[in-house]
Design a protein that fits this description.
Strand content: 5-15%
Number of strands: 4
Strand order of the largest sheet: 2-1-3-4
Structural class: alpha+beta
Shape: elongated
Largest sheet: 4 strands, mixed
Helix content: 40-55%
Number of domains: 2
Number of helices: 7
Radius of gyration: 18 Å
CATH class of the largest domain: Alpha Beta
CATH architecture of the largest domain: 3-Layer(aba) Sandwich
CATH topology of the largest domain: Glutaredoxin
């Protein structure tokens, strides 16, 4: 169930509380806020700006600079498909196409039911298992496109 704007503001105020008067607290605040909300909604960032007396442009700058922060809701399961050289040569693009086909969303998008977010990545560091994809923290290697549906079903 989605939170109301007021619930988002209240969560942000509560998270900011211990950091209100401290220097260098912005990143820990954003991390804690994202851990609670699953992403960083605009209203939460504006509340952090007011509560911490930091310009909203600086807050949004930090939130968009670091890849760990997300401004849109993400799926319960993040599917990362490697696009590194070894994986590419061994067919990762076809694996990615099958992931997109089975989930019905494109790269860097989230399914409507918030089950999956598809995230192509530069390298997963498992070149010997190429092509590779990860779902959350589980790695799946030596993939062929026909393996994708069975893997995704494990996370439904």
């Amino acid at each position: 169930m989605a939170l109301s704007v007021e619930e988002i503001r209240e969560t942000a105020r509560r998270v900011v509380g211990p950091w209100r008067e401290k220097k260098g607290g912005l990143i820990p605040v954003l991390q804690a806020l994202q851990a609670e909300l699953g992403y960083l909604p605009r209203e939460a960032l504006l509340t952090v700006s007011r509560e911490m007396k930091i310009p909203s442009s600086e807050i949004f700058g930090v939130a968009t600079f670091y890849a760990q922060f997300h401004l849109k809701p993400r799926g319960r399961h993040v599917v990362r498909v490697c696009r590194g050289t070894a994986c590419h040569v061994r067919g990762s693009l076809k694996v990615l196409e099958k992931v997109k086909e089975k989930t019905g969303v494109d790269e860097n998008e989230t399914t409507e039911d918030l089950r999956f977010t598809i995230e192509p990545v530069a390298c997963l560091g498992a070149c010997g298992l190429a092509p590779v994809m990860m779902v959350d923290s589980q790695t799946f290697g030596r993939l062929v496109p026909d393996m994708v549906p069975g893997i995704l079903e494990k996370f439904e």
